Each structure stands twice: as structure tokens, then as C-alpha cells.
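Sample intake sheet
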Amino acid sequence: MLEVHKRQLFLVRPESAQEQCSWFEVEILDPDTRSEGEFLISVHDVTAAVVARRDIRRFHHAVSHKLNTPLNLVLGGLEFLSEEGSDLTGLQIGEMSSLALVGARRLQSAVDDVLRYLNQPWATAPAQGCFPKDLPALVSENCAQSGISQFSCTVAPDVSPRRLMLTSAAMSAILDEILENAQKFHPQHQPIVEVTIREPTPGMLSLVIGDDGIHLSPEQLVHAWDLYFQGEKWFTGEVPGMGLGLSLVASLVWGVGGHCNLLNRSDSPGILVELAVPFQREDSFKPN
């Protein structure tokens, strides 16, 4: 498959039961000597660079805010208690302890985000792909975990009963990230979520997840799949999370030969996350 990302072209060999996903950067050259209708293409194996996507500058920038901000709450509260504790009332001690606890929980959440990205579930495994009929239960479970009470999940009757390339663990991780974002960025944190599952193209499942939250800017729509990207005009570290959610989604879906798309809803405020996930072929996991 060919992915266009940040104005670069990539050929992606999807992950299989025997091999990891491979990435090849494609460059179309334009030498003066080429004949009309001829193109010279350069292909480079960039798997190591993509898999290790650890832009050091952005990583340090993100971590310095996302870890230091809650850490300062913890240290500030504990230092105040240590220095002034003997002169504080029980109410004041409780308030400072609560402040430190808030910081500790935010710190734990940031660390968990990084670990979850680094330890993302194995995307595909022999005979372990999930079935489309299992998706409504996964949607319901993940909505409950994200505190979303208003949701619907519709599966078209003509969807193939075959297994998908993604395992239930990978699909649950994808739903968790998308639904958590829907809840986190909704103005009242009470989104109405609509999930539609169909098979518009034979062999490819379409999973569309919509909410009634807010529209995103063109920059946010373009860069939402980037590592550590968050839609703050100024990077304050106050927006919850590490900006890894949609990067995890993209790496899982692209890794099995699928597609991702993010767009604003045209009928109301909110966004649509469109995922195309391939079904397993009958010979996908047969030994060579």
C-alpha cells in the first residue's frame, strides 16, 4: 500500500504472522535526461527510522512539559507539607495532599501513555483476528471505560463474517484511544458517539467513529497522526495525555495494510475517524 504522510510517500509492506511491518520511502526523481513519460524512482528502506520514531527534540520537549508539570505539583505540595506541616490545620493539610495526589495521578497517566505506545499489542497473529460481530461488544466495553453513556454501534448485515487482520487486543486499543479523545475534548465531556461498520469494498472493513464535539483546524487534521502532536497553540503541558493516541492507532492500522482518515463532520460539530481494516485472506497464515 502507499501512504502519503507529511508530504512524503511511503510504500508499506503490512505486518504478517511471519514478518513485521516494513516501510520504504519513495522519491520520484526528475533528471533532465529522462524521456517523456518516463520516471526514475528511488526507494529507501526506512523501517528502522519509522519504527523507532523518536524525534529527540520533540520527545524532550513533550516529556519536559508532560512530566515536569505534574511532578511540580507533587513536589510543591510535599515540600510545603514538609516545611510548614506543623503549623497547618487539618483542612490545609488535606488540601495540599489533594494537590499532590492530582499531580501524582497526572504523572502516572503520562507515563502510562508512553508505556502503552511502546508496548502496543501485537497487531495480528495466526487465527486470532477479531470478527466484525465482536466489535459492538468492544465498543460498549470501551465506551464504559471512557465514561461515555450515549453511543450506538451499527453493523451492516452484509459484512463478511471472516476474521480481521487486527486482533481483539489491537482493536480494543484503537477504540480506547479514539473514544478517550472523544470524551476528553468534548466541551461538556459527554459526547454522543456513533459507530458504523460496513464493507464498502470486498476484503476491507470500514469502521467510522463519529462524535458531536468540536471541529478541528486544518493543521490539527493534518498532524493528528504525528507522534506527540497535541492541538495547543502554545505548548503548556496542561492538555491531558502525551499526544500518542492517534499515532498508536495509525501504526496499528497501517501496519496491517489499512488506511486512516480524520475529518470534520459536515452535518454538525464533531469529527469522524475513518478506519479501513483488511480481512484476513484464507491463505494469510499458512506456513511457507
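Comment: The longest helix spans residues 90-118. Confidence is low (pLDDT under 50) at residues 231-244, 284-288.
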